[in-house]
Design brief:
Blueprint (H helix, E strand, L loop, with lengths): L4 H8 L9 H26 L7 H24 L11
Helix pairs in contact: 2-3
Amino acid sequence: MNPIVTVQDAVTAFADFMEPTDAELNAIQREMPVILADVELLDAHIVTLDRIPSELDNRRIRRARRRALAARLALLNQTDGASVPGGAA
């Protein structure tokens, strides 16, 4: 008898343990401002890929970079008081 692995994979692909946990979803939600700021920065860089950046492009990149750094700083300040898993100090 040969086991049918593809059927087993199809059945377990949608098992409950494969879904993100509430903690993972909350972490994604907490990091969403950083993700969106990084997307904005990437968009600013993508615009300049096929041409020489103008002064307006440079300002847009600098502004997006500052927003991304500010979002990262805000995330770090939010989690500063949180406990670190694993007992790290």
